[in-house]
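Q: Can someone sanity-check these two? First one:
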Amino acid sequence: MSGVAPGNGAGPRGRDPAGTAGAVTPGDVAPVAGTGDVWDARVAGALAFLRRRLTGQYEVDEFGFDRELTDAVINPLLRPMYRDWFRVEVRGLVHLPATGPGLVVANHSGTVALDALMLALAVHDEHPAHRYLRLLGADLVFRTPFLSEVARKGGATLACNADVERLLDNDELVGVFPEGFKGVGKLYRDRYRLQRFGRGGFVSAALRTGTPIIPAAIVGAEEIYPMIANARPLARLLGMPYFPVTPTFPWLGPLGLVPLPSKWLIEFGEPIDVLPYAEDHDDPVVVYNLADLVREHIQSTLDNLLQVRAAGDYAR
């Protein structure tokens, strides 16, 4: 909507006997972008997006990652939660590579794996290179209708060495959570105590591809769905690894699915160079020792971040 400058000394148009005092000339129209122009552009962009989706004129990679859908739908839906509900603060971004492969290894918690989504959004929105973190998910994720499609479209893939190595060979930034369901499904009383890291498959993948391991610690997720009990009979009945009982779920029904607000801190640690051990990628002792080193680093960072949060030493 353009602004119109009034003529000098003229009254309302249509009352000038000469018909010139209030006349609008091309020079009178100021090219000021108004609200209407912004909304027109948004509507046009949305219609163009829908047209591309309906006609199949969009690209996905070999794993099903849909960059356009991630940028236009998935990330915008997550940002209000990231910025306003969890108030995520990120540290150590300098340790993430601007180009080339990297294996981000993080703690896993929170009953529902929102920590993975917040971590990926932090990498994309906060890092100067705006990289996509390709998350690794468990079999259950890709066996669940709708969730599997959304996960694939958002860049996630199955947590298996073959897929991890292909992603790293393609210079992707990959995110892995070695605790798996043991971490995300632990009770609130065990919060911020790392669980076992499994067999260290992520270390083998890093060794085979010569990719640096970047430890990441996430504080804040443990409080969003404080799990006070695990209803194992229900979990077995539903084929789930656990059935959470929280102060709000299942007592409040759908309202119990709303995460509680908490202050989040995410810190990326200094990369661990695996090249000196690359020839020993099949040695279980080397793999275990490196996995334990990463685990100790994350636990130490978690302990420090908890002290930082308790002291209120953060930006907002």
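And here is the second, same format, sequence then tokens:
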Amino acid sequence: MSQYETSNRTPLTAKQSASVYRVLQSRAAMGQKALSFELFPPREGAEDQLWSTFQALLDAKADFISVTYGAGGSNQEKSFEVLERMAPEILTIGHLTCIGASRQSTHDTIKRFEQAGVRAVLALRGDAPKDRPNALADGELKTALELVELVREETSLEVGVAAFPEGHIESPSLAHDARVLQMKQAAGAAFAVTQLFFGVGFYTDMLAQADKVGATLPIVPGLMPVSNAKQLLRMADMSGAAVPTELAHQLETADEVTARRIGMDYTIALGKQLLEAGAPGLHIFTLNRSEAALELAAGVGLL
């Protein structure tokens, strides 16, 4: 039994939980923040860990969850199996990428989401798998914006998109990112979730740029609990996020127990700063483990 089964957030009605946007609006109206989590399809033999984590998140009264899949949809079938089991239990977002995808294959994926009871998708361009470096060029869909347009044309599913506090790796500027975000909103995106980042200033600067161009959709920070230093540094490298030099040094030179404490203290402080800066909630990247994720949620006051 989890120590985090009691939430200080008011339970939402079915109507308030009908979509991510409604969750965020309902929490704001109550003077509260939303709490959500990201999971991914388990490797062979790691299924029990996933379902134990999922139950702990349900016990903690998560507002919604998202489920990823690998580069190029490499484990999409496993993702569908997970979604089919989770969606009846909680508001669930399915990740949808366009890397190497045709319009027909995307249409088929959307239909499977609907059949599973998924109520929202996170429309992402995605990353090419290592064994298919030209996957983007080979596919019919090239951008997340095209994906947003396709989903809104063919379905009533809610659509979320990614936001990039440190700037998209291929973008010339934050101003350009803001204009793209506004275009996604105009095409039907209802909310955004950020990539991994490590400073509240990145978030507030991104919000300021978005405000200038009329991108008003709620942007939920994505935050990963720093419970494993090596894992964090690897994830940051993969996403292009800049780990503060002093934090990286402390994590690399400390023993495992000390590194965990340093990392969790830093992440909890960042989460508090983000909520104080106006973030509508936090979307916590669990890596399919509940202990650190719920410790982070409790540390920032969401449990």
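A (reply): Looked at the second one. The chain has twelve helices and nine strands. The first strand starts at residue 34 and ends at 39.
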